Amino acid sequence: MPIVSTTKMTAQQFLQLGEDPPGVRLELVDGEVAVSPSPIPDHSNVVIQLIVLLENYNAANDLGELHHDVDTILDRFNVRRPDILFYSTERTHLIGKKAMEGPPDLAIEVISPSSIEVDRDDKFVQYRDGGVAHYWIIDPAQQTVDAWSLENGAYVVSGHAQGSAVIKLPPFPDLEIPLSRLWRRQK
Fold first, then answer.
1. Is the dihedral of CA 37, 38, 43, 49 positive or negative?
2. Which helix (H) or strand (E) holds 125?
């Protein structure tokens, strides 16, 4: 029987690969390169609408830096790309030249049909274990927002809303988010 050796790719090796090929997103998951398709229009719309809301609030209050779809090193063998990331002013030193070199204060994932299990299961565990303080999952198909905050190494629910509700979520307790602004108007 031949001997087969497999070696996990490290985050540093992964970052040497360069830019993603057109039409796909690459992430490092447990030392293996994972490929996901480009987002669908509903996904893209939610990301844009939420970035506008968050950045207007962030800029008015000088809270930190907001980023979109950037390699984020969670540990030696995991590099994820949250749809939206927020680093408070005290933690902007983690923003590197090529990637985020530590967990954000907030990671937001917008679910696409191909990402439901990844966002709700895999990334939930990886973000928790990687020390992401707040995690939001937005589901355009169900028109829901679910949020968790890290407490003593575990995620606890910090918010849930649906449809046209208005919600406030950590780490922005004073920001009102009208969910109706996030959903595309169906024609």
1. positive
2. helix 123-130
